[in-house]
Design a protein that fits this description.
It is a single chain. By secondary structure, the chain is an alpha/beta fold. The chain has four domains: 54 residues, no CATH class; 184 residues, Rossmann fold (3-Layer(aba) Sandwich); 86 residues, Winged helix-like DNA-binding domain superfamily/Winged helix DNA-binding domain (Arc Repressor Mutant, subunit A, Orthogonal Bundle), CATH 1.10.10.10; 170 residues. Helices cover 43% and strands 10% of the residues. It has a six-stranded parallel β-sheet, with helices on both faces. A two-stranded antiparallel ribbon has the order 6-7. A hairpin with a 4-residue loop joins strand 15 and strand 16. Helix 3 packs across helix 4, helix 4 packs parallel to helix 5 and helix 20 crosses helix 21. Pfam families: Helicase_C.
Length: 602
Amino acid sequence: MDEIHLLGDPVRGPLLARVREDAARVRIVGLSATVTNADQVAAWLGARLIRSPWRPTRLTWQLPAMPLEAVAADWTTRNYAHTRRTVDLARHHTADGGSVLVVCGSKRSVRTTALALAQDRGVDTAGADPDDSDLVERLCTKAGVRLHYRDRPHKRDAEHAFRTRQADILVATSTVAAGVNLPARAVIVRDTQTGMSRIEVSMVQQTFGRAGRIGAGEREGHACLLTAPSDRHYWQARLAAGYTVTSRIRDRLPDHLLAEAVQMRIATLTQAETWWKSTFAFHQGHHPFDPLHDAADFLTDTAYLTRTPDPDGADGGEDRLEATELGRLTSRFMVDADLASTLADATTHLMVPIDPDTAEDTLITTLATRLPTLEQAPFTDRAKAELYNVLRILGRPGGTHPDNQDHEGEEEEWQPVAGDLARAVLLLVARAPRAFRGRPAYIRGIPADSMAPVLDDAQRCLAWLGAQGSLATVHPWIAITAADLASRIRWRTLNRSGFALAPGRGGGRLLWMCEQMATPAHTHALVPGMWQAACARGIDSPDWPGTTPPSACRLNQADYRTLLNARATGTAITLHPDHAHISAPRGATVITWNGTATARHR
């Protein structure tokens, strides 16, 4: 395990710790250049500790003095001070042929800093929009400056250009600190914040470690951290002391306990306690079982776990713990248990909508105001203005297209609230799907890159709600609307050979059928073609007759017939004053609602 100090990461740490549980079959070698409590980690692993102070090159790190603007009251001025200091340092280190890695706290900071570096090298960047990814790439490439972050399309080209010295400056997010080996003479950590959180000391140290790597042909490295004068002593002390790995499993203990139950590694509370004793958190002195019991109670109260008496005494009469269908679904979709509970509470009290527009808007608003990543989604001032314009049109009853100007000039009493920006993004997919055709860089003047995080998080939660349809844990209208919208978000840029597909309302069922026929291994390659072929034949649902698989189908004949039987094709519902008569295919699940509760019938 390289970077074993990631045991202290709240998400990846427990996953790494899971490997230790299979230690009988796995030989573990842990590597870290930053951890200070290596003896504690080694003792937990039952490993022999080997220390080495040797480093092939000399590394000098410092916290450079910052200009006076760095202590200004407003964020814009402070941000400008960091950019200006970054440009000065990069110019100094590249003057004699050195290479520089600049690490920023956000993707937008990467783009704005890269543009400033390009301008310093004589490239005309006047009027360039930092959110126009393609334009930023062209301008910065001219200056020998490249950009790198997780979902950037050109990141592999940027890595190659930096390694081969076609570019001598790489501006990136912290992804370069873990998993991407990009050595440089100098490293500049521009920001001490990543999103709303302070950057971890381990991340700074790992990033510093990229400076003066032997693979870059350097004999010494220089690393700089730009920080506000008021934080200078804090960072000096933390960097000098090094990074102590501390388990963060308790931050998300219900999720990890649920995962253990889903994978049937625990079946009783005693087994859960035994599992807890094996964790790094317990090894570090967190011995009380109270947090574990609280997590089990929470999962039981929210119906993700069941606790039932042991019927035959096989477990000593102790209650059995078992993940429910909803619990397994929640773990599979990787929805945090706390967040899942919040969404469940919110959707329970929603009124049944009177039409599809209201259904979509109600569900979208619920997500936008309950998911922190949506409620606090960051956008530039220009993008915010465009999104508010979209919301003024699409957020109205009957609003169907952002170019609709029927309400222009009306007195606006509406005022923006938290979540409105994410709501506008989701409404664009729901009511103006054609705007996404062909993967445009801008959609209604809004950068597509800035929309992606909102859409990705919303899609996962909508898919989770949609998958609950057969469990009767949400109202049928929620499951139907969520499943349809989740598929349309996933395939919003569906495109094949220049033919833009733009799935509209109701397209989710056909998209689901195409996904099943393609199989997971071929989904992205085959679904666009299947969708296009269906549309060309006037097919807008999976209810076709016949049993011959389409030519692109990857299922064998038997599996294809099973899939056909899973459709709701041929279902007929006849409503009566006091009951309903439903005729459905054999094996169908019928979900009913009596005005107060749902029920499942097989």
